[in-house]
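Researcher: Here's the sequence for the chain we discussed earlier.
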Amino acid sequence: DADVGWGVRASEYFDKHSIKNVTVDGVEIDWEGEVDRGWVKEINCLEWESFAFHPSPLIVLVFERYNRAADNWRFLQELEKATKVYWDTKDRLPPRTVKIDLNIERDLAYALQAKECPQLLFLRGNKILYREKEIRTADELVQMIAYFYYNAKRPSCVNPEALAPSF
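Model: Thanks. This is the structure I predict for it:
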């Protein structure tokens, strides 16, 4: 343990000033562990083209790790539950789900016109069909996914004025 300057060792500082992750419902948020085992893949600008310009359904979660972390985490968990429903059914192509950290991928967030977090974008091809800014339950997200990609009835949580013009 090296001296970091001014006569203080790093271990001494962090013993006195511990850094703790935010907890949601008694569970500590683990953004790094989630990358390895989650249903929603985190992507960067370089990976965007391979995801966006494909005809299959794409759902993008724009989030921030350290600002409103509990809300962002809760929205991610609900999206993962909804995505798993479609992956478990074998009769249709499940939507692809990705997430973008607004603070890291600023250019991509700007191109998607995402200014606040968390928000969910429903895309088909290279067109944004709908932008959801409220945190929804997994059941509501399942209904929304069915509406946008599988010709289901429009759920009440989808605002008809916010839909893309050609949808």
